[in-house]
Amino acid sequence: MSANDNNKKKDVRAILNLVIPAFIAVAIFLTFSIAIAFGEIYFYNYRNPESITPEIGELETVSLSGGAEITQYFTPCTQHISYLAYYIVALPEDYSDGASFVMTLYDSDNKVIISQTTPFSMINNGDWTVDYFRKGLLKLPLRVSDSKEYHITFSVTGCSDDACPCLILTDDVNSVAGLGSCIVDGTEKDEMTVYMGYGYPETLSRFVILLSILLVFLSISYCLYLYYRETIPGRAENALKHYSNPTIQKIKLSIAIIIPILWFVLAMPDIVYHLDSVSLDPSWRWILNVAYEKGYIFGKDLFFSYGPLGFAYYLINMGDTATYKMGLLLWGCLFAVAAYLFARIFIAWRKGHISTTSLLLAFIVYLLTFHESWTDSYLQFMVVMSLVLWDIGDRTAIIPLNVLITFSSFGKIIGFISGIMMVLVYALFRILFDNRLNIKERLKMLILPVPSIIAMPALYLLYSHSISGLIGYVANLFNNVSGFNMTQQFDDSYSELDYICFFVILLVYLLIFMIFIAKDRRRAAIFIAAGVPLFSAYKYGVTAHGMECSAWVAAMPISALMLDMPLGIRNLSEEMPSNTLRGQRPKVLYHPVLQSLICCGCAIIALLFAWCGHGSLSGITEDMHSKAYTITHLFEDSREESLYESGQLPKEILNIIGDSTVGVYPWRIAYGAVYDDLNIQFSPTCFDGAEIYNDRLDAISAQYYRDRGPEYIIMSCEVVYGQINLLNDPQIWYAIKDNYNAVYTDDEFCLLKRKESADVEKTYTLVESNTYNTSDRIECPDWADYAVIHLEYSFTGKIRGLFWRYGVTNINIEYSDGQSVYGTALVPQISSGFELCYYPQDTYGVESSLNSEDTPVITAFTLSGTGLNSMNDKVIIDWYSCD
Fold first, then answer.
1. In this predicted model, which residue has the larger pLDDT, 121 or 58?
2. Is residue 256 part of a domain?
3. Distance CA 592, CA 711 (A)
């Protein structure tokens, strides 16, 4: 036997030693994955509730005076506890500075897990107080066992016996799973438990954990395979032969056919929205569905974050309406575009432009972060897929790409901005940095976004026949985006760990981009372009919606991006320099190493997305049932019974209004869906009190109430994100005060009627300007009637706002009658100026403000919050007096 034959046998043995164990391990993992996946889909639901609180039953108060200690035993529902909420009453008004509430958690061996001391000043008297459990540098939720019994003790320290609060006990012992006995000062309370709620963070499902392990395993195996393939002599030449094996080709063909079909079906959103209440989100979604038939023109009559085709995102069937039929037609066209794109993916695979490995990776990324498809994420997903197809050489993709972007310009504004920015970034990067492009190809890059840029204004003019409307619509596109980032913020929207995970996603994404910069400028362009929706989702999460929501929004577009990753054997062989095939080891390792880094980086991104988004397949059954129900009930009314139950108005209000025009403040506009004969009018911002992102929108709606407002306004006192009622859109409040009186008031509503002659609009004269420290308590001059606070962000604050967020700015207002109110201040609104008048927080206060001249005025205010860290240390305030 020759030496060459021996070497070949050694080569084969070395490869078999690697491949056979890997094959067995993959087979085992796949078997368990399939079993657990079916179990999770059909039998289990691992998406745990964020909180569990008991119903109110028979209550009893227990004083914590005299060193009393209350102990509650319980068994956790999951393996983590995020927080515990308890209900304190009878908190004294006068207590010493050191008075605190002490809560200690013990394990089953009576060892202290964590002890937390909360000052009385941080406790909500007569309401829920939440104590978060966080340990370690990453502030992780506590890890516990769901098979052991734990207990919590409650006590107070630093207060006298006559100044101690009370805890509440309830007899609803079965309302929270796992509750055990309750002991008060050594005596067990029969059939009573502490009235408290547990916070259980959502954890990754077992299938997603297993799929994550499989993804890591396959990534390591792939890297080892590349190493052995290039370091064992002769394997490089034979790689393509094994790649062309008929059996392997059949397997890959099956994968390439099945995955696009499954992906198409799973990614389809449920296009019909079920209107179930008159609250904030359902109300503006209802407006989108009726605006066209009521004759409202976006950009002229309405200024909102959605456009004239916004109804397609939340299609509501309210009978045989033209809007609903148009929505079904639009979605038929969009699904046809999606089917075309998935067919082109298969064709690209057949041509070798997309590898089987990349196709598998993209689909696994989607499965890891599976969530019910949202219409806006779905459209963005298709935009990225179109751009990927264009990038790999499919020039027909320019048509669906521009169709989708143009649709978004009339649907959801942020989708249009994200889409057009993505295409512009891609085109400019290729033109400037891709040296392989000739002049003709660079011109093609310039043409890429042109159709949608031309189509958007042309189609809008066909829609509104108004140049001024077009200008207003375009201006609203950008004002809404900048205003959202400044006003819709919430300090506790995510945990430190969630933020770290998403930040690591961005860093790994940047690392892969740098690899492409060095290796392949074409792929670097698509990677930086897809970074636009990723960064947009990141900003969406750090403001008010949380990183979990960011992961859901970004995961679908990023999964489409994975299709363009160079992870196939064919990619490696085509991109290797010629001397690689001759076995020169130093250069042979260059491309496999980079390809391994790309593979591992994509795997890390997928796993972190799954972590941030609490990935689970438990929703697949419900999602598919929902889609099937929609398809089989397309022409049924999608207004739920709960809408009519929650949307009832007092008969007195309905009798007073009659056939007159009526508006609703702030946002329960969906009363119009409950009462078909209610003659509702919309303000230009669709609804007020929540979507007023800047003073421009505030002024537009204020002018509407002055000039052509409805005969009646149904007013309630509701706010979002802890804002101060009526100070979040002060210009509207002044217009209402000048033009309306209260004619009916109860605990929930105040009905306003338009005055026969409006009060004269006030004018103010600047008297003086003073400089203060931003965090000072600022006393208002006795003669001042109006103030303009010139809040300016510092340079570092602007950088912070661009790459993170500005933070919440709070304001504490003191009135002349001793009242005070504290809440979130909208920086654009208070910077444009506000009256030093009374801002009522309930309906009776509204009635008093409108019908009486004797109302308190603002005497002082104090700014606070994390938002001040982004501002200059000094603030200038202009003081005005009324003429």
1. 121
2. yes
3. 73
Angle of helix 546-561 versus helix 375-391 axis, rounded to 10: 30
pTM of the model: 0.80
CATH of the domain at 186: 2.60.120
Residues 6+ away with beta carbon under 8 Å from 195:
54, 56, 59, 86, 87, 167, 168, 169, 170
Residues 166 and 228 both lie in one domain: no
Predicted local distance difference test score (pLDDT) of residue 332 = 95
Ordered DSSP codes for 760-822: PPP-EEEEEEEEEETTSEEEPPTT--EEEEE--B-HHHHHHHHHS-----EEEEEETTS-EEE
Decide if 711 contacts 753 (C-beta within 8 A): yes
Q: Are residues 743 and 805 in the same domain?
A: yes
Among 612, 629, 655, the domain boundary falls at 612
First to last CA, the chain: 110
Kindly state whether residues 800 and 876 are assigned to the same domain: yes
pLDDT digits (tens, 9 = 90+) for 319-335: 878 899 999 999 999 99
The pLDDT of 563-572, averaged and rounded, is 64
Q: Evaluate whether 502 touches 610 at the Cβ level (below 8 Å).
A: no
**Which three-class secondary structure string do you get for 620-673?**
HHHHHHHHHHHHHCCCCCCECHHHHHHCCCCHHHHHHHCCCCEEEECCCCCHHH
Q: Which of these, 553, 596, 597, 591, lies nearest to 572 by C-alpha position?
A: 591
Q: Is 285 helix (H, G, I), strand (E, B) or coil?
A: helix
Measure Cα distances from 127 to 152, 157, 379, 643, 653 in Å.
20, 21, 42, 28, 32
Q: What is the pLDDT of residues 826-852, one digit of tens each?
A: 888 888 899 999 999 999 999 999 998
Among 612, 627, 643, where does a domain finish?
612
583 within domain boundaries: yes
Whether 622 maps to a domain, the answer reads: no
Orientation angle between helical segments 521-540 and 413-433, nearest 10 degrees: 150
Q: What is the pLDDT of residues 620-633, one digit of tens each?
A: 777 888 888 888 88
DSSP symbol at 868: G
Residues 593 and 567 in one domain: yes
Instruction: Say how far apart CA 104 and CA 88 lie, in whole Å.
Output: 16
Cα–Cα dist 811/624, whole Å: 47
What is the Cα 754 distance to its own chain's centre?
39
In angstroms, the CA 105 to CA 134 distance is 13
249 with 193, same domain?
no
Residues of the chain with pLDDT > 90, as a percent, come to 32
CA-to-CA distance for 355 and 296, rounded, in angstroms? 49
Cβ–Cβ under 8 Å, residues 778 and 877: yes
CA dist list (Å): 622 to 198, 619, 730: 26, 5, 44
Instruction: State whether 416 and 351 are in the same domain.
Output: yes
Number of domains present in the structure of the chain = 3
Domain span holding position 314 = 206-612
Evaluate whether 230 touches 589 at the Cβ level (below 8 Å). yes
Contacts 24+ apart (CB under 8 A), 181-186: 181/73, 182/70, 182/71, 182/72, 182/73, 183/70, 183/71, 183/72, 183/73, 184/62, 184/68, 184/70, 184/71, 185/68, 185/69, 185/70
> Looking at the structure, do residues 150 and 220 belong to the same domain, yes or no?
no
Domain assignment present for 38: no
Residues 183, 213, single domain; the answer is no
Peptide bond just before 533 cis, omega within 30 deg = no
